[in-house]
């Protein structure tokens, strides 16, 4: 890859991180997709590409039997990359503006029952400061439906504990307020008052101000998403829960439980930070499936 292409990639990475507020996982995937595309171009510069060349690349990757979701993401990566190049005036026109990805298959999001969530929470080892921090994190994921990136980016200035409110910055740096339960609030207060200062012994974490990260690692820096994922994986393996559980599954579980308990769809949309109501409506499908499962199990003529 030539020097100019590397510069474009670095600028694109900054754009995704700062302006689009993408998670580390999504940022890494998008950049990897674009690097693969540029390498495929070989001696053709990415700023000299036209629509036909982009279509040729999409036909090329079809050979590898990727899932439709993967092809859709790769297409979105390229579209976003050329939007960035056009915005920064590296190109005079955007060749990817009409590039369409295959439609993603609709699938219901996986979720946990409240009993399964409690089983996970109760198996977090809270005897150590880091363990107590982990319990607080999972309590907040379950209580608020936050994305993992939103949670790890929390600063002290985002907290309004007295009112059970937390300000979060979602996709596109959109600001919203989420609500926390009294139980999650109690754990959070204990963490701030006791456990947090013991997590990084020997390291000067400085004075706490509005921009101080809420959750830190053993060296006093902001906690990374991969640590939270690792904690969840270890607990799920330990209790042998027959489900794949990620931080996002906590988000799905939060939304599903609200819908099942009669929450207004618009309220759930606001709490989740969805741009449109269509993204939230999928949880009504989850709820309906759950309702049918219960009916078939409980009713004598259900099946």
Overall pLDDT confidence? 89
Give the spatial strand order of the biggest sheet.
1-2-3
Number of domains: 2
How many DSSP helices? 12
Query: Helicity, in percent?
Result: 55-70%
CATH superfamily of the largest domain: Intergrase catalytic core
Largest sheet: 3 strands, antiparallel
Uncertain stretches: none
End-to-end Cα distance, whole Å, is: 60 Å
Which fold name is given in CATH as the topology of the largest domain?
Answer: hpI Integrase, Chain A
**CATH architecture term of the largest domain:** Orthogonal Bundle
List SSEs in N-to-C order: HHHHHHHEEEHHHHH
Label the overall shape.
globular
Strand content: under 5%
Question: What is the total tally of β strands?
Answer: 3
Question: In CATH, what is the class of the largest domain?
Answer: Mainly Alpha
Structure explained in plain terms:
The protein has 303 residues and is mainly alpha-helical. The protein folds into 2 domains: 3-87, DNA polymerase, domain 1, CATH 1.10.150; 114-298, Intergrase catalytic core (hpI Integrase, Chain A). 57% of the residues lie in helices and 4% in strands. The chain is built from 12 helices and 3 strands; from the N terminus they run αααααααβββααααα. It has a 3-stranded antiparallel sheet with strand order 1-2-3. Helix 6 (129-144) packs antiparallel against helix 8 and helix 6 crosses helix 10. The N and C termini lie far apart (60 Å). The model has no long low-confidence stretch (mean pLDDT 89).
Topology overview:
Blueprint: H1 3-19, H2 24-41, H3 51-61, H4 68-87, H5 114-122, H6 129-144, H7 148-152, E1 159-160, E2 165-169, E3 175-179, H8 182-199, H9 225-239, H10 247-260, H11 265-272, H12 277-298
Antiparallel strand pairs: 1-2, 2-3
């Amino acid at each position: 890859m030539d020097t100019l292409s590397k510069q474009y990639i670095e600028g694109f990475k900054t754009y995704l991180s700062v302006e689009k507020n993408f998670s580390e996982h999504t940022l890494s995937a998008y950049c990897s997709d674009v690097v693969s595309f540029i390498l495929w171009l070989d001696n053709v510069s990415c700023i000299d590409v036209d629509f036909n060349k982009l279509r040729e690349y999409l036909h090329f990757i079809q050979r590898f039997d990727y899932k439709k979701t993967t092809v859709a993401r790769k297409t979105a990566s390229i579209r976003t990359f050329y939007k960035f190049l056009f915005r920064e005036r590296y190109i005079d026109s955007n060749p990817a503006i009409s590039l369409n990805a295959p439609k993603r298959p609709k699938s219901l999001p996986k979720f946990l029952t409240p009993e399964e969530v409690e089983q996970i929470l109760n198996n977090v080892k809270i005897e150590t400061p880091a363990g107590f921090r982990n319990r607080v994190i999972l309590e907040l994921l379950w209580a608020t439906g936050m994305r993992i990136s939103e949670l790890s980016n929390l600063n002290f200035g985002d907290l309004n504990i007295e009112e059970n409110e937390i300000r979060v910055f979602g996709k596109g740096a959109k600001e919203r307020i989420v609500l926390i339960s009294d139980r999650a609030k109690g754990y959070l207060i204990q963490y701030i008052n006791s456990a947090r200062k013991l997590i990084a012994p020997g390291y000067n974490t400085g004075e706490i101000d509005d921009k101080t990260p809420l959750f830190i690692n053993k060296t006093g820096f902001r906690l990374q998403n991969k640590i939270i994922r690792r904690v969840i994986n270890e607990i799920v393996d330990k209790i042998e829960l027959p489900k794949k559980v990620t931080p996002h599954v906590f988000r799905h579980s939060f939304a599903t439980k609200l819908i099942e308990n009669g929450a207004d769809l618009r309220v759930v949309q606001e709490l989740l930070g969805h741009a449109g109501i269509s993204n939230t409506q999928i949880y009504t499908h989850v709820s309906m499936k759950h309702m049918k499962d219960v009916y078939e199990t409980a009713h004598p003529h259900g099946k």
